[in-house]
Amino acid sequence: MEKKYVAEPYKIKVVEPIAVTTREQREAVIKKAGYNTFLIDSADVYIDLLTDSGTTAMSDHQWAGLMEGDEAYAGSKNFMHLQEAVKDVFGFKYTVPTHQGRGAENILSKITITEGDYIPGNMYFTTTRAHQEMNGGIFRDVIIDEAHDAMKDHPFKGNIDLDKFQALIDEVGADKIPYICVAVTVNLAGGQPVSMENLKTVSKLAHDHDIKVMFDATRCVENAYFIKEREAGYHDKTIAEILKEMMSYGDGCTMSGKKDCLVNIGGFLALNDEDLYQKATQLVVVYEGMPSYGGMAGRDMEAMARGIYESIDYHYIHHRISQCRYLGEKLSEAGIPIVKPIGGHAVFLDARAFYSHIPQEEFPAQTLAAQLYLQSGVRSMERGIVSAGRDKNGNQYYPKLELVRLTIPRRVYTYSHMDVVADSIIDLYENRGNVKGLKMIYEPPVLRFFTARFQPLSS
C-alpha cells in the first residue's frame, strides 16, 4: 500500500497541552482581539499556524547546547561556533548576531541606504520594506509577473525579472541602487523559490553595475530543497552543496534564525565586505549589543550554530516540505483556492477567490483568518491589503494577492493536526456565502497588521 505522507524523521520526547475551546468561548476571544489573530492569546489557540518564526521545536542536541552557554560580554565561545557555522554552511566571512532578522534588516538598511536610493526586490516583505523606507529608500518590485497570479503553476515564481531590474537601472542609474534584495524563498508570493539559474544571472547583472546582492536568507534551506527537486543538474547534489552555491552569488544576507536555523530567537547579518562589516559592528553596539553577541545570549548562539547544521539534513527538510504539501494537496483536492505551487513553509489560501463576494477594501483575508479561528480554534495570518499597508502619502496599497497564510511550525504538529485544519477550511468554504467583511476601527501608522483592530460589517 502506497504511503500517503512522509513520516516524521524524529520522535517526541516532550508534549505540551493545547487549548480545546468551544465556539462560544472563541466568539468572545476574537471580539476582544478586534478580529485580529495577532491579538489572540496563545492560551486560547488550538492549532497555531500564525507563523513559523520562533515556533520551532528544538532538538535534544540544541537543548544540550543551551547548557554550554558562554555568557561572556565579549569573545563568547558560542559566537565563535556561530561564526564558524555561518562561514561553513553559507560561505560568508563575517557574522553580526542580532536579536532577530529585523535587527539585521535595520543595520543593513542604515549602512547602505542613502535618502532617495532605490531597493529592488522580488516582492516586498513587511519589515524589510519598512526598514528600507524608514532609512530613505524606495522599494521597487522586480519579481516575475507569474508571482502575482495565485493559480499560476510556475516552478520558480520567486525569480527576479531581469528586464524589470535592467529597466530600473536605466531609469535611476546604478549609483542609486546600493543593493538588490533577493528573498529565498518569497514569503508573500506563497513561499515560492528562486532558481539557481536566476540567481546566477541576477548576480552577474548586479555586479556588472557594481550593485551588491543581499539575500533575505530566512528560508534559504527550503529554497535549496526546491532547486534540488525542480531544477536540472541539481537532483544529485546535497542540500548543503546547493545552499553554498546559492549564497556564493550574493555579497551578504540577513537571517531570521527563528525559521531555517531552527531556534526560538535570534538572527544575524552576514557579509563578505570588510568595510561594511566594520560599519555594521559600529551600529550593532548602538542597537543590539557587542559585536560578539549582538542581541543574543551565548546559549542561543550555540543553539543556532547547531540548528544551522541540522537544517541542511535532507530527511529533516524533506519531511517539512512534505507536511506542508500534504495540507495543500488535501485542500486543493477539495476545491479550495490556494496559491500554486504549494510553498515550503505555508499553504496560502486565496481569500479573494474564497470570498469572491467580499471586496478587497472589506478585508477578505482578514475576515477569513477570523472565521477560521471561530470555526476551529486554528490561528492563521492575513497576508493581503492589511499587510500591504499604505505608501508615504497615505494611499492604500492594493496587492494583487489577497491571502491567508497557514504557516507550519517546524517539528511541532502531526499530520492529524493538518487534517483538522483542512476539514475546518473545507467546512468554511461550503458555507462561505453568508459571511460578511470587516471594517478597520483602529489603524497604527506602521506595520498595521500586527495591532490593527476590526469589527464585522452589519450589512
Automatic annotation (TrEMBL):
It catalyses: L-tyrosine + H2O = phenol + pyruvate + NH4(+). InterPro entries: ArAA_b-elim_lyase/Thr_aldolase, Beta-eliminating_lyase, PyrdxlP-dep_Trfase, PyrdxlP-dep_Trfase_major, PyrdxlP-dep_Trfase_small, Tryptophanase_CS, Tyr_phenol_ly. One of its GO terms (molecular function) is tyrosine phenol-lyase activity. Signal peptide: none annotated. Its cofactor is pyridoxal 5'-phosphate. Keywords: Lyase, Pyridoxal phosphate. Its EC number is 4.1.99.2. The modification N6-(pyridoxal phosphate)lysine is found at residue 259. Residues 48-423 form the Aromatic amino acid beta-eliminating lyase/threonine aldolase domain. HAMAP family: Tyr_phenol_lyase. Belongs to the beta-eliminating lyase family. PANTHER family: BETA-ELIMINATING LYASE-LIKE PROTEIN-RELATED, TRYPTOPHANASE. Homotetramer. This is Tyrosine phenol-lyase. The lineage of its organism: Bacteria, Bacillati, Bacillota, Bacilli, Bacillales. The gene is tpl.
